[in-house]
Amino acid sequence: MSTLEQAAVLMLKALHETGIPHMLVGGFTTNYYGIARSTKDVDIVVELPSRAPLLEVEKRLPSTFEFDSQITFETITGNLRHIVHIKGTPFVIELFELRDEPFQKERFHRRKELYVPQLDIVVTIPTAEDVVIQKLRWGRSKDIDDARDVLAVQADRLDYAYIEDWCRKLGRFETYQQVRATVPNI
Predict the structure, then answer these.
(1) Are 118 and 69 members of one domain?
(2) What end-to-end distance do the CA atoms of the chain give, in Å?
(3) If you write DSSP's letter for every residue of 141-164 in order, what string do you get?
(4) pLDDT tens digits for 86-108?
(5) Among 80, 110, 113, 140, which residue's CB has the most CB atoms within a 10 Å radius?
(6) pTM here?
(7) Are residues 97 and 156 located together in one domain of the fold?
(8) What's the rounded Cα separation, in Å, for the pair 124 and 108?
């Protein structure tokens, strides 16, 4: 297991032990549902009633986990983000606060507990459909590639009506259609 994977496991366990509702997102979930690729960060959505629970999480982690003192604002989704550096590595963990926004709330509500072989633990992750929608929402070229990969690998297991409905609501339907037209048969 790589240093990043070990850091992910430690953070996920600390969140679980402190009772903070959370969901692993980003590259690790794309790897679960699609085609594996490298990543330099761990992205986790957290539901926080206040900032106090993060202090308890920080206490449970090794001193190599360094929480930024500043909270940042993620411009695409409007989430507040807590960045945790893993000292001595190029890796970071990003904790995104769950926002009171319809798609984010729905995605969080639909999350599933699944065994993720890459981490060798059971974690809470979004559904494949919600990974596709969020990747299309981000819209960077690697995100579009990730969405295409998940669509290809999960092809006959996806609820396309759900994806199309949310893509329409979020103004990403045209992008979805373009991406879906390029999905290879595998």
Answers:
(1) yes
(2) 28
(3) HHHHHHHHHHHHHSGGG--HHHHH
(4) 999 999 999 999 999 999 999 99
(5) 80
(6) 0.93
(7) no
(8) 10
